[in-house]
Write a structure and sequence with these properties.
Blueprint (H helix, E strand, L loop, with lengths): L1 H24 L4 H19 L2 H6 L6 H26 L7 H24 L3 E3 L2 E3 L5 H32 L4 H21 L5 H7 L1 E3 L4 H18 L1 H6 L6 H15 L1 H10 L18 H18 L8 H5 L7 E4 L2 E5 L7 H21 L20 H17 L1 H19 L3
Antiparallel strand pairs: 1-2, 2-3, 4-5
Length: about 425
């Protein structure tokens, strides 16, 4: 497990470093270079700390001790690069003075860490780093220093990622920032895990020279989240958007469910509209887009089948006081509108009221006496299936919750009773 996790993490980090390097060659900002450097350093460190690699180095002492020291320093330098990424994400841009101060602090941490390991007299033996009894505390100090500084760097990065996420609209970019934020948070756990070695450092003078199973798994998951987040826009646009497909399926599933009240009311009175009577009401996620399209067709077929029952005064039923609502512009309400330019919400209420009244007439078994060729027809939506779905969602919302539609439904029910009893 430790070998697999370390090698997977190394492969992900190194592949991502290569991907970023290709971007850098085409020109990029400093943050891109920092990210590529981080991935390269962390990938190299994970590769050489894999148990299988450390085992191969046992017969090459003292090379295994040198490799252990270098990999620790590579991890620390990777944290430095993450800190620089965080600083470059600030709204005002990178502060040169802050960067210089952080670089001086990073240099001090790296030099101090290397010096502490050397003073501890650490030697790698049989997969464990050992220190003489009188120098055990040096080993513990190094681990505390590594955990404290690495956590600080990741906290700075996390804060800036959260700030960026709040400023980005929903889409692949926001998804990528969220994945990178999760990666940074998990990276904090991964970094702090080294503190679990401190008791062993102090009591036995031992430390794992290679990655243990927990560290390997944390590293692999962190690498997957980080690389997935940083390449989210690429995956969303490449090959028809494989990363975006689950999001589209989930969105289609939710919209399919949101249309359920209107579709169910039509299907109950008009079972012939079902294109596939055996189809389940809740679609399989990866078929949700197809099932949503089928549900739209069935709703439209039901609307056409109800036309003999449309009341001639559906507009009056939906807006008995003669009002037509408020126009909505890009920045919000812009004022009242007249009969020729009703808002989409008001038009949706009219169509929902028409359907509700027609369903009541259909249940009564007779078309209302006032039906004629000028009865309202369905709102014609030009464009894509998405536009059609958006319109039907408005109609469904009005069908379920609009008081005007509820009033039209009651009036149609009373009219149907009057029709059954004879002329009033």
């Amino acid at each position: 497990m430790a070998d697999l996790g370390s090698l997977v993490a190394a492969a992900l980090f190194l592949s991502f470093a290569l991907y970023r390097a290709l971007i850098i060659w085409r020109g990029s900002d400093p943050a891109q270079r920092y990210i590529a450097g981080f991935a390269g350093c962390m990938g190299a460190a994970m590769l050489f700390r894999a148990p299988v690699v450390m085992s191969a180095l046992r017969d090459l002492a003292p090379l295994d001790t040198v490799v252990m020291l270098v990999t620790h320093e590579l991890k620390s330098f990777a944290h430095v690069l993450l800190l620089l990424v965080g600083l470059s994400l600030r709204p005002a841009g990178p502060d040169r003075g802050a960067q210089r101060r952080q670089l001086r602090l990073a240099a001090a941490v790296l030099v101090t860490g290397a010096a502490v390991l050397l003073m501890a007299g650490v030697r790698a033996e049989s997969g464990l780093a050992t220190a003489p009894p009188d120098r055990r505390w040096f080993l513990a100090v190094y681990n505390v220093l590594f955990a404290a500084y690495g956590t600080w760097c990741l906290l700075v990065l996390t804060r800036e990622l959260v700030r960026q996420t709040r400023q980005v609209a929903a889409g692949p970019m926001r998804t990528g920032l969220r994945l990178m934020t999760f990666a940074a948070l998990l990276g904090i756990v991964w970094t702090l895990w080294v503190l679990t070695y401190v008791p062993m450092n102090l009591t036995q003078g031992l430390h794992t020279a290679s990655e243990d199973a927990v560290c390997s798994v944390l590293g692999a998951v962190t690498a997957a989240l980080a690389t997935g987040g940083a390449t989210a826009t690429w995956w969303a646009s490449a090959s028809g958007g494989p990363l975006a497909a689950p999001g589209r399926w989930l969105s289609a599933y939710r919209r399919h469910r949101a249309l359920e009240p209107l579709w169910s009311a039509l299907r109950t009175e008009l079972p012939q509209i079902a294109l596939d009577p055996a189809a389940p009401r809740r679609p399989v996620l990866w078929r949700a887009e197809f099932d949503l399209y089928r549900r739209v067709i069935e709703i439209r077929d039901g609307h056409l089948a109800l036309r003999p029952y449309f009341p001639a005064d559906a507009t009056g039923r939906a807006a008995p006081d003669g009002t037509y609502g408020t126009a909505v512009g890009p920045t919000g309400p812009v004022g009242p509108v007249g009969p020729g330019e009703r808002s989409a919400e008001v038009r949706a209420v009219v169509e929902a009221a028409t359907i509700a009244a027609a369903l009541e007439g259909k249940r009564a078994g007779r078309a209302p006496a006032g039906v004629h060729s000028s009865s309202p027809v369905s709102q014609q939506i030009a464009g894509t299936v998405a536009a059609e779905v958006a319109w039907l969602l408005l109609v469904t919302a009005a069908f379920v919750s609009s008081p005007e539609v509820a009033a039209a439904r009651v009036r149609a029910r009373m009219d149907a009773i009057g029709l059954q009893d004879g002329p009033r």
